[in-house]
């Protein structure tokens, strides 16, 4: 699917641009078999970063033959489907509903916050976070934040900390 849509995206780009030959020079098309062949030949040393701008494209980005079709597919998907859906969602859905949904998703992350706090050696904060999750889930199914009004503020944690 990615190869087909990348070809479709390249055809649209070529038809939209005034100079198709310059586009073909900067973004060569590869067949699926050529992409697989290129991937088989990549070694770990090829993935090391060298910031020299004077290098040829295959040296700067050894996965370019794979990256371009994936980018084209993602760009086509974003332009033709995801962005229109997001714009309509924002225009048609009231802010109160979007806020409740946002709070519901945030509430689902509270158990992970508690796990992170336990890993960091903060069992008191983890207990408060689990208390927040329990109160918010039992009272409003997580669609609101009554625990904040009860004096249990959100304490965001992640594995990076």
- What is the number of strand segments? 0
User: Strand fraction band?
Assistant: under 5%
Radius of gyration: 24 Å
Secondary-structure element sequence?
Answer: HHHHHHHHH
Mean pLDDT: 79
Low-confidence stretches: 1-27
Report the helical percentage.
55-70%
Q: What is the first-to-last residue Cα distance?
A: 39 Å
Which oligomeric state applies?
single chain
Instruction: Figure out the total of helices.
Output: 9
Structural class by SSE content: mainly alpha
Largest sheet: none
- How would you sum up the global shape? elongated
What secondary-structure arrangement, pairings included, does this model have?
Blueprint: H1 2-16, H2 20-26, H3 32-40, H4 57-60, H5 64-92, H6 95-108, H7 110-119, H8 123-140, H9 146-149
Helix pairs in contact: 1-5, 7-8
Quick synopsis:
With 161 residues, this protein is mainly alpha-helical. It is 68% helix and 0% strand.
Report on this model:
68% of the residues lie in helices and 0% in strands. It is elongated and about 60 Å long. The longest helix has 29 residues, at 64-92. The chain has helices at 2-16, 20-26, 32-40, 57-60, 64-92, 95-108, 110-119, 123-140, 146-149.
Structural features:
161 residues; mainly alpha; 9 helices; elongated
């Amino acid at each position: 699917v990615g190869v087909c849509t990348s070809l479709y995206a390249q055809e649209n780009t070529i038809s939209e641009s005034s100079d198709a030959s310059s586009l073909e020079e900067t973004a060569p098309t590869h067949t699926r078999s050529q992409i697989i062949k290129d991937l088989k030949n990549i070694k770990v040393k090829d993935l090391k970063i060298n910031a020299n701008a004077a290098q040829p494209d295959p040296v700067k980005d050894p996965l370019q033959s794979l990256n371009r079709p994936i980018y084209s597919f993602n760009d086509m998907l974003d332009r033709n489907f995801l962005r229109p859906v997001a714009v309509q969602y924002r225009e048609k859905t009231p802010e109160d509903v979007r806020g409740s949904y946002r709070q519901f998703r945030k509430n689902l992350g509270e158990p992970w916050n508690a796990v992170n706090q336990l890993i960091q050696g903060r069992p008191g904060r983890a207990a408060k976070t689990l208390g927040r999750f329990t109160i918010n889930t039992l009272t409003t199914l997580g669609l609101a934040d009554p625990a904040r009004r009860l004096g249990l503020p959100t304490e965001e944690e992640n594995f990076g900390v």
